[in-house]
Amino acid sequence: MASQRFTTHSAEETVALGRKLAAKLKPPKLVVLRGELGAGKTTLVKGIAEGFQAAAQEQVTSPTFTLIHEYRGPKADVFHVDLYRVDTERELETLGLDDLWDERSVLLIEWGEKFARFERERDAEIALERKGENGRRIVFTAETRRRGGRRGKGKGKR
Ligand SMILES: Nc1ncnc2c1ncn2[C@@H]1O[C@H](COP(=O)(O)OP(=O)(O)OP(=O)(O)O)[C@@H](O)[C@H]1O
Ligand SMILES: [Mg+2]
Predict the structure, then answer these.
(1) Could you tell me if residue 134 is inside a domain?
(2) Which residues neighbour 51 within 8 Å (Cβ) at sequence distance 6 or greater?
(3) Does residue 41's CB lie within 6 angstroms of at least one atom of ligand 1?
(4) Which amino acid residue places its CA nearest to atom 16 of ligand 1?
(5) Is residue 155 part of a domain?
(6) CATH code at 53?
(7) Statement: residue 147 has pLDDT above 60
(8) Nearest CA to ligand 1 atom 11
(9) 16 in ligand 1 pocket by Cβ < 6 Å?
(10) Is residue 11 part of a domain?
(11) Structural domain boundaries enclosing 58
(12) 42 C-alpha vs ligand 1 centroid, how far in Å?
């Protein structure tokens, strides 16, 4: 596993980092965003969505209640998922995340670490940690394991 560490000093810097990280997320990708409430996960997604030209940062808001937001870009479809309010496997199942998965998909999942399946299936993890009021330590870790045959598009391959 290869990790890269960054420090940002404002929300704007985190958005800019998100734009940069988008270049490292060639679809398909499942990314778990880790960090406490207010760590900056949604702020980072603003930049990632911009990086894929899938949305302007102002359009990206927290999917706290809707659970999934979708932003379609020319080369990727960005799905922003928030599992903070999702507690059981059954509730997770009803979201139908498998159906979102295809060659163009980039799934960005806040609170994904609550479910063991994402620990197994993720291609990358981005961990955000608060350092004072506006400082954030951000660690990007890409899995280096083989790809392929891992997930089918809602075909129940697992
Ligand atoms: N360096 C920074 N990076 C990101 N956000 C910052 C930074 N400094 C201050 N902030 C502020 O911290 C807050 C981060 O909120 P955000 O919604 O992105 O967090 P979150 O991790 O998605 O939280 P939640 O788990 O509640 O969804 C915003 O109000 C943002 O303006
Ligand atoms: Mg959020």
Answers:
(1) yes
(2) 18, 19, 20, 21, 22, 23
(3) yes
(4) 40
(5) no
(6) 3.40.50.300
(7) no
(8) 11
(9) no
(10) yes
(11) 6-142
(12) 7
Count of domains for the chain: 1
H runs (alpha helix) in 35-132: 41-51, 89-95, 116-121
Supply the DSSP string of 104-156, one letter for each residue: TEEEEEETGGGSHHHHHH-SEEEEEEEETTTEEEEEEEE--S--SSS--SSS-
Count how many residues are written for the chain: 158
Q: What is the pLDDT of residues 29-71, one digit of tens each?
A: 999 999 999 999 999 999 999 999 999 999 999 999 999 999 9
8 lines ligand 1 (CB under 6 A): yes
37 lines ligand 1 (CB under 6 A): yes
In a domain, 19, yes or no: yes
- Decide: 46 in ligand 1 pocket, CB within 6 A: no
Local confidence band at 144 (pLDDT 50, 70, 90 cut-offs): confident
Give yes or no for residue 63 CB within 6 A of ligand 1.
no
CA distances from 156 to 50, 54, 60, 93, 101 (A): 32, 28, 30, 12, 12
> For 14-20, what is the mean pLDDT?
98
Cα 150 to middle of ligand 2, angstroms: 27
